[in-house]
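Lecture 7 notes: from sequence to structure.

We start with a single chain of 173 residues. Read the sequence below before looking at the structure.
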Amino acid sequence: MTEVKIVQVSEKDLPELIAISRETFADTFGKDNSPEDMAKFLDENYNEDKLGGEMATPGSFFYFLKADGEVAGYLKLDVDDAQNEEVDPNGLEIERIYLRKSFQHRGLGKQLFEFAEEKGREWGKSVLWLGVWEHNENAKNFYASRGLTRFSEHVFVLGDDRQTDFLLKKALV
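Now the structure, written as tokens:
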């Protein structure tokens, strides 16, 4: 049986956060985007300055999911002014939720998602929301199974490519 722990990421964990962020994003979207756009996005978004700044942002929280002591995935939650869209002042945004390939299809994504829901309720939030790429069918199906519904969309820029993310939400009350 796999021992699973979800722990808040600390400043000393920044190198591991950078590594897993780059790895999981490239594994998830690399095959569907140009190498140039992917390299530009990874270099601009998953570096010490950018992620360190995100970690220091009030209302942003990073968590590692550890399976048998190994970092298997991570989660970024945003509340209040840290949210990327003005969806709901009492909302909780799941900005990132990723698992390493070798840990997928083992129920760990569900555990991360349920952890996010628990945090939202603990923090008194009424709505959980997120953005998902319009072509990420696996993620869209997962979120539908968790009760999220589409309410809008926004542009997500990957490198020089403007893409569409669907915005999904569900009530937490």
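The CA atoms of residues 100 and 129 lie 22 Å apart. Keep this in mind for problem set 3.
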